[in-house]
Amino acid sequence: MKTIKPISKLTTKEKELVKKALEVKKRAYAPYSNYSVGCALTDEEGKIFTGCNVENASYPAGLCAERTAIVKMISEGGKKIKSIVVAASSEEPVFPCGMCLQVIQEFGADSEVIAVNNPGKLFQRALTRTLFPFAFDPEKLNK
Ligand code: THU
Question: Residue 16's domain spans which residues?
């Protein structure tokens, strides 16, 4: 069910993540789609990691904002995503693409996603497991 709410309904910590996602969105390298995305996530220790989409002239080489932030988290020693905010360029809050959900699932099966609209006044929230109920997880590799 769609429940879009004003940003004022978020907690102070969540608002801080939203602010960071909107800030990093300004650094998006998106000359091909003209669609900027910013992402800010917290790991289980409360550390914040951010990322933007980074496109490429060879289109499939481009990277989404969520995966940029997750790769930064892992490479800097973070282990698990607790909460992830995605600020996209649509008037309606937009949840992560399928490829990003697969990567969010790998490092945050119990995480929550907050999608923020453009210009950052509205949000929608959902658990990763709700967005991706039949995820392919590592357990399935050995059974
Ligand atoms: N994009 C993201 O960064 N995250 C998503 O979840 C969906 C799409 C980026 C990829 C591409 O640079 C642009 O948005 C248009 O698809």
Answer: 12-90+109-118
Instruction: Give this prediction's pTM.
Output: 0.96
CA distance 54 to 64: 7
**Atom 13 of ligand 1, residue of closest alpha carbon:** 35
- Please name which of 91, 92, 33, 105 lies closest in space to residue 63, comparing C-alpha atoms: 33
| Domains of the chain: total | 1
Q: What is the pLDDT of residues 31-44, one digit of tens each?
A: 999 999 999 999 99
Q: Which residues line ligand 1 (CB under 6 A)?
A: 30, 33, 35, 37, 53, 55, 62, 64-66, 96-97, 100
CATH number of the domain at 49, please: 3.40.140.10
Please confirm, yes or no, whether 23 is among the known catalytic residues: no
Structure tokens at 65: 């904002």
Q: How confident is the model over 76-123, as pLDDT tens digits?
A: 999 999 999 999 999 999 999 999 999 999 999 999 999 999 999 999
Query: Does the residue 48 lie in any domain?
Result: yes
What is the CA 117 to chain-centroid distance, rounded? 12
